[in-house]
Write a structure and sequence with these properties.
Elements (H helix, E strand, L loop, with lengths): L1 E4 L1 H8 L6 H12 L4 E5 L2 H9 L5 H14 L1 E3 L3 H9 L5 H13 L3 E3 L13 E2 L1 H7 L1
Parallel strand pairs: 1-2, 1-4, 2-3, 4-5
C-alpha cells in the first residue's frame, strides 16, 4: 500500500505533540518497517527544518533529515506539479502540491490531520487514527 504522509504527521512525531504523537508514531512505524510504502513530498523536508529551526543544531538537522530519508521515499517536485497545484481551487498551495505528488505516484491514501484542506483530492484522505482503523 502506497501512502503520502503530510508534513503535519511527521511533525507530530518529531515535536512529540501530546494529542497526536501516538497514532502518528504508529503510522511512522508502519512506514519504517515496510508494512506500508510511505512517501513524502520533497517540499516536506525544508518545511520541517524551517518549523524546527529554532530547536535544531546543524548536527541535529542532519540527523533528522537522514532519518526521514531512511524511512520515507521522497517524491521530487516537478514543474507540472506546480502548474496543476496552481490550478486547483484550494486556498492552501502547499496542500495542493501534496495532492499533486500523491496523484503522480498513484497513492492509495493521503494521511494528514488537515483533511479540510484536501477536499479537492481524488485520492482518499484520512487522518492517522482513521488510517490505522482501516489497516
Amino acid at each position: 500500500m502506497k501512502v503520502l504522509i503530510d508534513t503535519n504527521v511527521i511533525l507530530d512525531v518529531l515535536c512529540n505533540r501530546p494529542n497526536f504523537v501516538k497514532n502518528s508514531s504508529v503510522v511512522w512505524k508502519y512506514c519504517e518497517t515496510g508494512q506500508v510504502d510511505g512517501y513524502i513530498s520533497a517540499l516536506s523536508v525544508p518545511n520541517i527544518v524551517y518549523i524546527l529551526r529554532k530547536e535544531l543544531t546543524p548536527e541535529k538537522t542532519k540527523e533528522i533529515i537522514a532519518k526521514i530519508l531512511t524511512i520515507f521515499q521522497v517524491i521530487d517536485l516537478k514543474s507540472i506539479d506546480l502548474k496543476h497545484a496552481s490550478e486547483m481551487l484550494t486556498s492552501d498551495f502547499e496542500d495542493a502540491l501534496q495532492i499533486c505528488c500523491a496523484n503522480r505516484i498513484k497513492a492509495d491514501y493521503i494521511i494528514t490531520r488537515n483533511i479540510r484542506d484536501f477536499q479537492c483530492s481524488q485520492i482518499p484522505v484520512l487522518d492517522p487514527t482513521e488510517f490505522l482503523k482501516r489497516i
